[in-house]
Design a protein that fits this description.
Structural class: alpha+beta
Distance between the termini: 38 Å
Strand order of the largest sheet: 1-2-3
Low-confidence stretches: none
Mean pLDDT: 96
Order of helices and strands: EEEHEEHHE
Number of strands: 6
Strand content: 25-35%
Radius of gyration: 17 Å
Number of helices: 3
Largest sheet: 3 strands, antiparallel
Shape: globular
Helix content: 25-40%
Length: about 140
């Protein structure tokens, strides 16, 4: 179990602390929902968590198999929907990996991306396309 603490500091802003490490991050409501957009919104963190989880899950597999994975990156584009309620509609993740990864190993890594715990934790109504590029 991991404990995280969140303090509302006012003006739609929160301070978050990861208790085991003491790491801190902040959130702010987005501009389109009464906030300043001065930091990640809570739903931005969901997108960032998905992209980070995908890369981490792939990296665990690559490390176990002795495949260099340094330099891999991901970007995520979040789209909100308002019907039937305001929520995340799509988190589209684009993963870029080293061209040096063998063709026959790429399928294994791409399957791992779809198996990350955050991907499996999100509601099935959220669209989660993942694209892969090797360069």
């Amino acid at each position: 179990m991991v404990k995280m603490n969140v303090t509302y500091t006012g003006d739609l802003h929160c301070d978050l602390t990861h208790e085991p490490s003491g790491s801190k991050i902040e959130t702010d409501a987005p501009k389109d929902n009464l906030g300043r957009g001065a930091s990640f919104s809570p739903t931005d963190l969901v997108g960032a968590a998905l992209a980070s989880c995908i890369l981490t899950t792939m990296a665990i597999l690559a490390k176990r198999d002795g495949v260099p994975f340094e330099g891999a990156s991901a970007s995520v584009e979040k789209e909100m929907v308002t019907q039937p309620t305001r929520r995340i509609g799509t988190l589209a993740v684009a993963v870029t990996m080293p061209k040096s990864i063998a063709e026959d190993y790429r399928v294994k890594l791409e399957r791992a991306a779809h198996a990350c715990p955050v991907h499996h934790s999100l509601h099935p109504d959220v669209k989660l396309p993942i694209s892969f590029k090797y360069e």
